[in-house]
Amino acid sequence: MTASDLADKYMTLWNEPDADRRRRTIAELWTEDGRHILQAPQEIRDIAAQPGIGLSAILEARGYEEIEARAGSAYEHWVGSEGLRFRGREDAERLGDVVMFHWEAVAEHGETFAVGLDFLVLAADGRIERDYTFIVA
Fold it and tell me: Which among 11, 74, 81, 103 counts the fewest CB atoms within 10 Å?
């Protein structure tokens, strides 16, 4: 699978309304013990870093079940409730076992709500071992 094909399939997952199709896509994309590691939004990172709290604000899902829950909640909130669509920015590149690409969350009228950057570390079989997601704007 090319970097562009992988990025396209990955983005399709986050827009998928059918839970069974999401589940199948996750099994096709991730290894069984794969991880989705999300940088929390800035406001959460600011709270976590306050004196007396001192926590990191990293949201991590491990394995199919947790990734399914993560994708389902993202769909329900951002796509289902907020009416956003996730799309890639057509800049997917591969270097060794890493695929990198930017994505956008876009409102129905075309306004970009958020921009992200993903680094996918691939296993020998081409599936995702680790997915590092950064919200950059």
Answer: 81
